[in-house]
Write a structure and sequence with these properties.
The N and C termini lie far apart (53 Å). Helix 2 packs across helix 11, helix 8 packs parallel to helix 9 and helix 11 packs antiparallel against helix 15. Helices cover 44% and strands 13% of the residues. The protein has two domains: 249 residues, TIM Barrel (Alpha-Beta Barrel); 67 residues, no CATH class. The protein has 15 helices and eight strands. The chain is globular, with a radius of gyration of 20 Å. An eight-stranded parallel beta barrel has the order 1-2-3-4-5-6-7-8, surrounded by five helices.
Length: 337
């Protein structure tokens, strides 16, 4: 796949990167039901990739960061999200992502996590626009190296960001990114300061679209924040004029999201079966990750039906996928009134 962004039909609906949620295991389940128009990996530290592979020489099959870059063919187009404030690290990691066969690189410029910001990455990039541009250019150099070595076309570099740091600064910040001529720009419609605590400012999207029309007409604008399902996402596109919507938390407990089904549409039997499948896939694909991380799915899948709390309590005690499967089988065998 070359620059898949150019051939993507509007409107489109894409899966948000969510660390420890949309990992390889959950994405396999999502893609087995309906592949989103574009899928993102969780974010991965470019510096971490360099240090673990080049300095510590950890073999790829034992490297947890390389595990974060696992994907399956069914997920295409699949974009790897990276973060770094160091151009040389971004160049290295973007080249690696291209070598791994991803369809694109996305750069995180919106994460509010303190440990990420301390490295000058994520949302902190909004405060250092020159650095942001350098990092984008470095990623382009990285993918170009791989393209030159293999006689292929460089994979595209996109960005995901917010509308400002302490206050909304669309008119200052968004043009900086647009002038780099990105194929796609995702805007989470909140400032860094707002975290996820206020309703996303979809009313500001028309201004972002107008800037795009003026500065970089070929850049696809993806809106993000609070879209609950496909119908809601379509409404947001109709009202705001963006090209696509990125859905994040709506996928919690609902891998059927991209079929158009809402959480309430899916019978509990189907949810339990999917949860058992996910548990096995988590164990197979994320063997070094604590099973604890899988458990955040239990609350999302097992809720809103009679007996959900009791079943959830038992599932939370399980220590592996076999126990999850057995608990679900026992529950299903119970006589129903
Ligand atoms: C648990 C969790 C992990 C997240 N991890 C990432 C990440 O790795 N990279 C990123 O760009 N955004 C990350 N986000 C932000 C989401 O991609 C998205 O911007 C945000 O949840 C708003 O969209 P929504 O209202 O559709 O969920 C994360 C959000 C959550 C809830």
């Amino acid at each position: 796949m070359m620059d898949f962004w150019a051939s993507l039909k509007k409107p489109f609906f894409v899966l948000a990167p969510m660390a420890d949620v949309t990992d390889a295991a959950f994405r396999v389940l999502i893609a087995s039901i309906k592949t989103p128009d574009v899928t993102w990996t969780e974010f991965v530290s470019a510096d971490g990739l360099y240090h673990t592979r080049e300095m510590k020489k950890i073999p790829d099959d034992e490297n947890p960061l390389m595990r974060d870059l696992q994907y399956s063919e069914a997920e295409r187009p699949i974009v790897a999200q990276l973060f770094s404030s160091k151009p040389e690290m971004m160049e290295y990691a973007a080249e690696l992502v291209a070598k791994l066969g991803f369809d694109g690189v996305d750069i995180n410029m919106g994460c509010p996590d303190k440990s990420i910001e301390r490295q000058g990455c994520g949302a902190a990039m909004i405060k250092t626009p020159d650095k942001a541009v350098e990092v984008i250019e470095a990623a382009r150099r990285g993918v170009a190296k791989h393209a030159a070595a293999t006689g292929t076309v460089p994979i595209p570099i996109s960005v995901k960001t917010r509308i400002g740091y302490n206050k909304e600064s669309i008119d200052e910040w968004i043009p900086v990114l647009l002038r780099t001529n990105l194929p796609a720009l995702t805007v989470h419609l909140r400032t860094r300061k707002e975290m996820s605590k206020v309703v996303a400012h979809w009313e500001l999207m028309p201004r972002i679209v107008a800037l795009r029309d003026e500065i970089a007409p070929n850049t696809k604008i993806i809106g993000n924040g609070d879209a609950t399902d496909l119908a809601d996402a379509q409404k947001k596109i109709d009202e705001s004029g963006c090209d696509g919507v990125m859905l994040g938390r709506g996928i919690f407990g609902n891998p059927w999201l991209f079929t158009g089904r809402t959480n309430a549409d899916v019978p509990i039997e189907e949810k339990l079966e999917a949860l058992a499948t996910l548990a096995h896939s988590f164990q197979a694909l994320r063997p070094a990750k604590s099973f604890h991380i899988f458990k955040k799915h239990i609350k999302a899948f097992v809720s809103n039906f009679d007996g959900a709390a009791d079943l959830r309590a038992i599932l939370m005690e399980c220590e592996d996928a076999g126990q999850i499967e057995e608990t679900i089988a026992n529950y299903r065998a119970l006589p129903r009134a």
